[in-house]
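Per your request, structure below.
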């Protein structure tokens, strides 16, 4: 049965005010008959009634967000989530099958099989990843050691002590299943840095069943942004304020209040917990038998019990739901990885094809100069390029469709004046080279290569986008590619290759500048 929805709190003052106003009106009407001094008495009476109603209603309808979270959680149905994960898994499988690189394909298949297994596993054998994440030196490894109860990872004052993710199995009273506590490399101070280690930490955090976000003071901007980002991803997080021993009681409370306040939209107050994973030894005055005294450093035990209790409570109450929701998320992420892998392979293949055909085009023109656009109106090389690009993107156009597409491309090129534009770009780059002798045939050939590349890239984009040209239609697509291809770095490389090819073909040497 779905849980009953509490009255939205925003309506509470309105309802209270209406009731109070109605009462006030009734009494005031009666007051008209009773005498003139009464209104002075009625105003405070009305206000007091409104305030009382508002207070009673406020208490009677608690905020949904924090306090009712655990009761609300089951409203999401684990069976429905598991079913969604199964559908997502089918989609991912289809994408994985399209990956040509056998090793990558098998790797992703293996990961998918593990996720599939995880859906039907019984609670006692279920695995839960609790990922410890946060800024460098916040005390993540110290926290892992404290929770596990022995030194499993190296800690240090030097930033970047932990270099890769490490997981440790541990148990918590009252929680079924296999718990893995995963330590991660720290985020850079700003929390926005790149780098491989940070990328790995983020990858682990995204896949966590439960996240422990460790800070050792109030949040810096980067940390705040990261917590929000992960919350938006649906990541269940406990924010751990570590090194509380460094603060006097009042300051520690102030930091906690501030953290709770800043995070109140995404993290319930109970899920912001203060700990001391590895408190500094404290100086203690010891009185010896002979009456003299000295100060010694007393080692302090870790203080993480509150956090342990909180993790146990969250996992006991929401563990199953978190695990299934996370399986769905992980399957989605895997599907995205598979799609990215397919896309990257296709882009590579398309780039190879375009490269190949641009020079085939140029060589054909160089051997047998034809009026520029004839080539696009049904010449074999262009039709082959279009057909091959279509196949890269799983399309199989008929010969008639190929000819129609080639014709449309040629028309669009003419319409936006690409042949002239390309020819002047090419003439320009040849002018800047020592090969001033380059004959008209070579310029024409290189121009055609240039046009073939622009057409090829526009086509690849067209197929990539599911046979859509994007803004401005076919002309817009061609112009966008023309701009991209006319970048200086591309032009330099193009000129070098063009000269290489035509110079070897005609066996001419560059004219020696006089
Ligand atoms: N005072 C105090 N110091 C702590 C506490 N926890 C950790 N530290 C110190 O903070 C420093 C960093 O601790 P680590 O556990 O290595 O921090 P980390 O977040 O794993 O660091 P990286 O792996 O480099 O990102 C060490 O010098 C710890 O002794 C604590 O509760 N109180
Ligand atoms: Mg560490």
């Amino acid at each position: 049965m779905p849980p009953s929805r509490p009255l939205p709190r925003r309506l509470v003052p309105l309802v209270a005010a209406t009731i109070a106003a109605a009462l006030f009106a009734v009494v005031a009407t009666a007051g008209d008959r009773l005498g003139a001094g009464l209104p002075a008495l009625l105003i405070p009476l009305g206000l007091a009634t409104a305030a009382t109603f508002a207070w009673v209603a406020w208490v009677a309808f608690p905020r949904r967000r924090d306090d009712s979270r655990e009761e609300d959680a089951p409203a999401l149905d684990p069976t429905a989530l598991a079913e969604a994960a199964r559908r997502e898994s089918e989609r991912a499988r289809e994408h994985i099958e399209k990956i040509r690189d056998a090793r990558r394909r098998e790797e992703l298949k293996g990961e998918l099989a593990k996720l599939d297994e995880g859906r039907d596993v019984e609670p006692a054998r279920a695995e839960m990843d609790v990922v410890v994440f946060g800024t460098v030196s916040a005390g993540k490894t110290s926290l892992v050691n404290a929770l596990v109860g022995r030194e499993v990872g190296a800690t240090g004052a030097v930033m970047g002590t932990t270099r890769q993710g490490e997981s440790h199995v541990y148990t918590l009273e009252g929680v079924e299943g296999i718990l893995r506590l995963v330590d991660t490399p720290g985020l850079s101070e700003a929390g926005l840095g790149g780098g491989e280690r940070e990328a790995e930490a983020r990858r682990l955090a995204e896949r966590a069943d439960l996240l422990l976000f460790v800070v050792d003071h109030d949040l810096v901007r980067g940390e705040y942004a990261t917590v929000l980002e992960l919350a938006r991803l649906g990541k269940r997080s406990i924010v751990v304020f570590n090194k509380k021993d460094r603060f006097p009681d009042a300051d520690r409370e102030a930091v906690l209040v501030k953290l709770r306040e800043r995070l109140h939209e995404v993290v319930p107050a109970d899920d912001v917990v203060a700990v001391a994973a590895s408190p500094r030894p404290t100086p203690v005055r010891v009185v010896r038998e002979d009456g003299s005294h000295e100060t010694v450093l007393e080692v302090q035990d870790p203080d993480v019990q509150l956090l342990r209790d909180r993790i146990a409570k969250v996992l006991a109450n929401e563990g199953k739901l978190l695990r299934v929701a996370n399986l769905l998320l992980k399957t989605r992420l895997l599907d995205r990885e598979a799609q990215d892998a397919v896309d990257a392979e296709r882009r590579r293949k398309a780039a190879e094809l375009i490269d190949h055909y641009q020079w085939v085009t140029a060589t054909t023109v160089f051997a047998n100069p034809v009026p520029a656009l004839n080539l696009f109106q049904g010449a074999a090389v262009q039709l082959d390029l279009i057909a091959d690009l279509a196949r890269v993107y799983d399309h199989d156009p008929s010969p008639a469709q190929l000819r129609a597409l080639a014709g449309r491309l040629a028309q669009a090129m003419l319409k936006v004046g690409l042949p002239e534009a390309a020819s002047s770009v090419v003439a320009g780059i040849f002018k800047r080279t020592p090969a001033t002798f380059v004959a008209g045939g070579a310029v024409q050939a290189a121009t055609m290569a240039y046009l073939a590349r622009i057409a090829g890239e526009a086509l690849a984009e067209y197929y990539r986008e599911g046979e859509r040209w994007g803004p401005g239609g076919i002309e817009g697509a061609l112009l966008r590619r023309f701009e991209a291809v006319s970048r200086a770095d591309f032009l330099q490389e193009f000129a070098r290759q063009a000269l290489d090819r035509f110079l070897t073909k005609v066996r001419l040497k560059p004219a020696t500048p006089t």
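The chain has three domains: 11-62, 123-328, 369-506.

Regards,
D.
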